[in-house]
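Project outcomes to date are best conveyed with an example. Our students and postdoctoral researchers have been running inverse folding experiments weekly, and each run begins with a structure described purely in tokens. The record below, which covers 459 residues, was selected by the lab manager from last quarter's runs and is presented without edits.
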């Protein structure tokens, strides 16, 4: 039994027509419990906090200094003595910071989010400017507050997709305000707040995901409207669900276009050599170093880097369509082990995890409904169109990975082998994503599993 205030029990409306007199608009019911906005989806409706209050200014200043000094990755070729000294001077400053109090931060989710963003950025600057021969000892002024803040947010103490994308944007030009508040930002009216490399390429990489999140708001609305109709299940509902699924396929195709458009502003070599290394988590550390959080009794273990797999929007499409991608096992592991897509949910804001759990408990899954009603060829075709659109999105993702990671990695291996024949062993290593995964094998597995979800008509 559903609770009486569940949005599936509210009077139905036709999403493509809009709210009609006498119908309750259920589109806002997810916002309170799941931090999902009807204008911006999983992104906050207003630009995230860009600076903490004065009592935590030392953190903000440390991050400002790192960005303004354009600290360089320790793996950069031909790193100069001046660049090495600049990084060490900054790290020494970080080590000498006091451990700032955090109690007042816990009164505000917005403050906690900004603090997590700032401290994880500082931590990644600290780790990846260290020589690879150095141990990773994250100093107490960063490790102690970061772990405490992460525990409050129920997030790992590492840079996540939400730090890079969801809570790292601002608008370029002022937005139009209506009676209901500010409009959602236009896709071309966004900029990033903080970056590691300070390059336009890095900003475009983040903004491609932000634009996907914003365009995906309509997909969330279509899911909600479909679930309303699934609860009714009559002939009118079937016609509406068919229309919603066709429209969902169209929206996902738009997401694919936005994903591929990242090529217009982000150079693959710049990304691979100057941007991507900043994101690596402990499980993809180039020197396989253990990250030690000084002053922390229970050492964190979930320390993968940010990944598109941490986007709740893409997970929502999987859950809603019943694509069962969570059965795709990482690296051939046993089926009962956590797979990547489930593991990536640990790195999502907790309210978004709750949203996915809520979505997965829908008593009338759309895939089950389609299979029970597969004699309706229009509904079947609409569902399969939606599934194929998600497969197309995953095909595009593989293409982007090939351009931005696989091809530059192959060129790097060739250069290393020419410079040092002993380096051939490097080429035998499995290519890992920033989330620590066997990248190519996993992505192809998820894509193929999506393709298998197409429902065949009844003969």
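After processing, the design step wrote out the following sequence:
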């Amino acid at each position: 039994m559903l609770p009486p205030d569940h949005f599936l029990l509210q009077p139905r409306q036709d999403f493509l027509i809009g709210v009609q007199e006498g119908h309750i608009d259920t589109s806002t019911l997810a916002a309170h419990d799941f931090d999902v906005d009807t204008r911006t989806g999983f992104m906050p409706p207003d630009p995230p906090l860009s600076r903490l209050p004065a009592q935590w200014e030392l953190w903000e200043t440390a991050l400002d200094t790192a960005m303004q000094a354009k600290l360089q990755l320790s793996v950069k070729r031909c790193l100069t003595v001046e660049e090495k000294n600049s990084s060490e001077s900054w790290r020494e400053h970080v080590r000498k910071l006091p451990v700032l109090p955090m109690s007042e931060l816990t009164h505000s989710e917005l403050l906690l989010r900004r603090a997590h963003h700032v401290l994880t950025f500082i931590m990644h600057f600290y780790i990846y400017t260290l020589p690879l021969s150095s141990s990773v000892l994250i100093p107490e002024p960063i490790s102690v507050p970061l772990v405490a803040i992460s525990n409050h947010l129920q997030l790992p103490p590492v840079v996540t997709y939400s730090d890079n994308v969801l809570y790292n944007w601002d608008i370029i030009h002022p937005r139009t305000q209506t009676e209901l508040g500010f409009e959602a930002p236009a896709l071309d009216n966004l900029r990033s707040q903080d970056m590691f490399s300070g390059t336009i390429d890095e900003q475009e990489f983040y903004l491609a995901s932000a634009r996907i999140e914003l365009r995906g708001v309509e997909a969330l609305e279509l899911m909600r409207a479909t679930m309303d109709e699934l609860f009714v299940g009559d002939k009118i509902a079937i016609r509406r669900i068919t229309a919603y699924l066709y429209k969902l396929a169209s929206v996902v195709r738009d997401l694919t276009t936005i994903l591929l458009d990242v090529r217009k502003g982000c150079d693959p070599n710049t990304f691979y050599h100057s941007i991507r290394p900043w994101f690596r988590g402990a499980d993809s550390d180039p020197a396989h170093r253990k990250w030690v959080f000084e002053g922390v009794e229970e050492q964190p273990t979930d320390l993968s880097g940010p990944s598109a797999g941490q986007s709740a929007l893409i997970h929502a499409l999987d859950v809603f369509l019943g694509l069962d991608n969570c059965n795709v096992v990482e690296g051939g592991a046993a089926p009962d082990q956590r797979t990547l897509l489930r593991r990536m949910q640990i790195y999502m804001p907790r309210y978004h995890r709750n949203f996915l759990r809520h979505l997965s408990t829908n008593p009338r899954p759309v895939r089950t409904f389609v299979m029970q009603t597969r004699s309706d060829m229009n509904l079947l075709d609409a569902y399969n169109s939606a599934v194929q659109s998600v497969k197309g999105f995953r095909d595009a993702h593989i293409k982007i990975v090939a351009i931005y990671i696989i091809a530059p990695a192959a060129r790097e291996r060739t250069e290393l082998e020419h410079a040092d024949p002993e380096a051939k062993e490097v080429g035998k290593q499995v290519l890992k994503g920033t989330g620590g995964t066997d990248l190519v094998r996993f992505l192809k597995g998820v894509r193929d599993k999506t393709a298998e979800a197409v429902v065949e008509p009844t003969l």
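The two ends are 35 Å apart (CA to CA). Strands lie at 136-138, 169-171, 177-178, 181-182, 190-192, 291-293. The training component of this project remains on track.
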